[in-house]
Specification:
The protein is an alpha/beta fold and about 280 residues long. The protein has helices spanning about 5-15, 20-35, 50-65, 85-95, 110-115, 120-135, 150-160, 190-200, 230-240, 245-255, and strands at about 40-45, 70-80, 100-105, 140-145, 170-175, 180-185, 265, 270-275. The strands form 2 sheets. A 6-stranded mixed beta sheet has the order 3-2-1-4-6-5, sandwiched between helices. The chain has a two-stranded antiparallel ribbon with strand order 7-8. β1 (about 40-45), α3 (about 50-65) and β2 form a beta-alpha-beta unit. The longest helix is centred in the middle third of the chain and has 19 residues, at about 120-135. The protein is globular.
Length: about 280
């Protein structure tokens, strides 16, 4: 029997039914455990057009609709210089999923791609700053980004392998440049494989990478590109074949750090040694 439900209703139903355990439950757990959304908040849900931010928008929309905790939402799309096809794709998906987006334009791609060094780093910083500024202009006190559990895990391993430090990605943090603003990550406890399964089940097509700098490069490994993050992603995937719980182990480890067993650590920007309290 053919369903009479519209596409956005079928998508919402899949979140609430088929993927309730792996999407809705960990989303709500993260919101509550890390106190991401509180009464009176106005959250700018930042949508890049990819699978993660689009799912985050639907999850926050459902929470906003059903939560006992009153809060407001803006669904914010920053156009850093997308080509026409990508811009239309974002607008099409927003309409399909019934997400009332607010779009604003910048020239970030032009500025970042004209620099000789680290265009990706500069682009990321500029995009973050533009999102904070626009969110504050709209009266928001928080911006929500679509980083998921695998982003957290990969960032942790990358910091150790390439940054010579043990450092994770926090579920929320205060802005240092925009007073009163916070960044939150509502997908913090959701696995990427479950996001992909939800996307494919609903036959949705989102942007992969809309960056003008990389869109003409030869991509490998299913379009993910050659990067340090991709190296770590592949490494963890390989290790997962022998240890299916490796992702959970890494994720749980950043919640169970035993400072007493580290020879050195940093707190509030200051370095400390175990020698300081060794004889106490």
């Amino acid at each position: 029997m053919k369903s009479d439900l519209k596409k956005y209703q079928l998508v919402e139903k899949s979140i609430q039914k088929k993927y309730h355990k792996v999407l809705w439950t960990p989303f709500v757990q993260a919101v509550k455990k890390y106190e991401l959304i509180n009464e009176g908040d106005k959250v700018a849900v930042c949508i890049s057009g990819g699978k993660d931010s689009m799912l985050m928008a639907k999850l926050v929309q459902l929470l906003h609709r059903h939560s006992d905790v009153p809060f407001d939402v803006e669904y914010l799309v920053m156009d850093p210089g997308y080509n026409e096809r990508n811009r239309q794709k974002i607008e099409y998906n927003a309409k399909l999923l019934q997400i009332p987006i607010t779009v604003f334009e910048t020239d970030i791609f032009d500025v970042a791609n004209s620099t000789g060094k680290s265009p990706c780093y500069l682009c990321a910083r500029m995009r973050r700053g533009s999102l904070y500024a626009k969110a504050k202009e709209l009266g928001c006190n928080k911006i929500a980004l679509g980083h998921h559990m695998n982003d957290v895990i990969e960032t942790t391993v990358m910091a150790m392998f390439y940054g010579s430090q043990l450092q994770a990605m926090l579920p929320k943090l205060h802005s240092t440049n925009f007073e009163g603003m916070e960044l939150i990550r509502p997908l913090y406890c959701i696995r990427e494989e479950d996001i992909l399964a939800w996307r494919d089940y609903n036959e949705l097509e989102f942007l992969l990478c809309a960056c003008r700098f990389t869109e003409n490069m030869n991509l490998t490994d299913g379009g993910l590109g050659d990067s340090k993050r991709e190296e770590i992603k592949q490494l963890i995937s390989s290790l997962k074949k022998d240890n299916p719980l490796i992702e959970s182990s890494i994720f749980n480890s950043i919640h169970s750090v035993n400072i007493e067993m580290f020879p050195g650590y940093k707190y509030a920007g200051k370095r400390h040694s175990f020698i300081e309290k060794y004889d106490e």
